[in-house]
Amino acid sequence: MSAPDPGIYISPTQMYQEVRALAEGVGRIEGKLDQALRENVDLRGDIQDHEKRLRELEAQPKTTDLNNRVEKVEQQTWRSAGASAVIAGICVVVGQVFLPELFR
Length: 104
Fold this sequence. Notes:
Blueprint: H1 12-59, H2 63-98
């Protein structure tokens, strides 16, 4: 049996140190993974809340529906303004006929 090549010999002490360093590295990775998982849970909650709010916004009337409603309100406003002008004109004429002393 030949002697081991001295260039590649690793003592048990060196092997133990490497295993300990590797264990510490794995421990740090586990800690980072745990933190990432906790943050991921928070993100999932945020995403669910965001999706819920989007669904509520989607349930609201669309802009075309809103535009139609605004147009109807504008039409009613102009109609009532026109009717008010006609009524005011009629009142002036009636007032001039029946109360001419007010318009002198």
